[in-house]
Amino acid sequence: MRGKAQLLALLAIFLAFSFFFYLSIAQEAMNSSQNLTTNENSSEQSASTNLVSENSTSQKSVNSSNTSFSEFTQLNESNSTEENGTNENVSTSSTQISQTTEIIAKPKISLKLSTDKSRITRGENFLLRVFVSNEGNANATNVKVTVDLPKGFSTDTLEKVCNVIEVNSSCELEFSVKSDLSTQLGENEIKVRASYE
Length: 197
Description:
The protein has one helix and 13 strands. By secondary structure, it is of the alpha+beta class. It has two domains: 2-103, no CATH class; 109-195, Immunoglobulins (Immunoglobulin-like). Strands 7-8-12-10 form a four-stranded antiparallel sheet, with no helix packed on it. A three-stranded antiparallel sheet has the order 11-9-13, with no helix packed on it. The chain has a two-stranded antiparallel ribbon with strand order 1-6. The chain is rod-shaped, with a radius of gyration of 32 Å.
């Protein structure tokens, strides 16, 4: 009787060690899936990993800002008899790992610029047209277009907003630009930036 109790205690220790060993393997699998690469326009990803076998013994959840994981590990015990007639408790376990990765859709903004005049003289005004296109797979909201003018140029406003640009759509903005007598002769560069939520 005492030998069976010691054997059961050793078996319990072995099962606990095996369980934590499988949890550490599962954690490594989850950590490696957190390092998924995405293109520069994708900022969020989520993945889930499920570990499943026959009899349920534990459940664990881990959440981070962009990724959430769940794991379930289950162990199955069985008895076997050797040919010499002695009974021995033998523990077996099986684990099935599956992984699903979902990449969240993001907008992809592009800009095209044009002017109503290719050449101006000092003191003339012209229109700067900015075409903001969304080539991504999600709507872009609160798209702010900012104009950076060189010395000698001015405009009524340096920033305009497109509230929503749907997928495969565009928004056109116009800036009325004025040149003054201090405008530098030759070619001048106007920089335009866009940001969105």
